[in-house]
Amino acid sequence: MIVITAPTGxxxxxxxxxxxxxxxxxxxxxxxxxxxxxxxxxxxxxxxEVITGSHGxxxxxxxxxxxxxxxxxxxxPDSSLTPEDAYCGFTRPAAKALAAHGVGHVVGVSALGRGTxxxxxxxxxxxxxxxxxxxxxxxxxxxxxxxxxxxENILEEADSIREKGVFTDTVAADRRSPLVxxxxxxxAAAGLLLERSWSGSDSxxxxxxxxxxxxxxxxxxxxxxxxxxxxxxxxxxxxxxxLVGYGLDEAFAQGVVDMKRAKDxxxxxxxxxxxxxxxxxxxxxxxxxxxxxxxxxx
Length: 298
Fold this sequence. Notes:
Elements: E1 2-5, H1 12-22, E2 30-34, H2 42-45, E3 49-52, H3 58-65, E4 70-73, H4 83-101, E5 105-111, H5 124-136, E6 141-147, E7 149-150, H6 158-164, E8 166-169, E9 177-180, H7 182-194, E10 201-205, E11 211-212, H8 214-225, E12 230-233, H9 236-245, H10 250-264, H11 283-296
Parallel strand pairs: 1-2, 1-4, 2-3, 4-5, 5-6, 6-10, 7-9, 8-12
Antiparallel strand pairs: 9-11
Helix pairs in contact: 1-7, 3-4, 4-5, 6-11, 8-11, 9-10
C-alpha cells in the first residue's frame, strides 16, 4: 500500500497517473489523502482508496497510514504560519503516525542546500531541511527529493510575460542555477516508491538537465514564444513588502526573502550534476509544452 499526499497538487497530479499505470505490475494498492475528493477525476477515484481531510490532521494520517508500506510526503506551505509551523508543525502528526504504524518507506519533497554555508539561514529551505530531520527521526527509510526552483514557478509570471514581456526574480541576472520540471520530480518519486530496496536516510537531488540564469531563461522564452521577454531583478525589500501586502504572515514572508537571498548566495550550487542527478526535461521543452499555451491563450 502506497499513500499519496497532495495528489491534486503540481507534483501529485503527475505522480498519481504514473503510479496508477505501474502499481498493478508491482501488486501495489494506492491510497490518497485529499481535502476535496471531487478534485480527483472519477476514473481515478474508482482505482484508489480515498481518505478525506488534511494530511496535517492527526486523525487523518492515523487512518491513512494504517497498513501502509510507503508514503509520498509533500507539505503544502501555509503562508499564514511561520516557516517552522508550516513545515515541522504540519509534519509532526504524520511523524507520530509513521512510527505508530511501522511505515517502512517515505519519499518526501524537499530542497537543495543541505551542507552549504547558507543552509541554516535560508528561510523556507531551512525549515524544509528541519522537516526532513523530523521524518528521519521516526526511523523510517527516507528519501528526500532535493529540488531546486521549479520551471512551473514562472507560470506565476504568465500575465506579466504576456502583457509586458517581463518576468521578475531577486537573483542576479547572470546567476546560473539548476531548475527542474515538476513532472521530473514526480517521475523520481514514482521510481523510489515502487522499487523500495533502499534503506536508511538520504537525499536524492533532481537537478534538471542544465544550470540556467535569468538571462538564459529570458533568451529561451523569447525564442520559444516568438516575442521579446526580458528579466527584471526585484529588490528583496520590495518582495517582502509585496508578500506582506498580500496577507502572508510576516515570518513566512521573511522566510521567502531569506530563501531568495540564500539562492543568490549559492544555496543550490552544492551538488554536482551527474547522470544520476540530472533529469530530462529541458526548459525549451517545458516552454513549448506548458508556458507557451499559458501565455498565448488570451
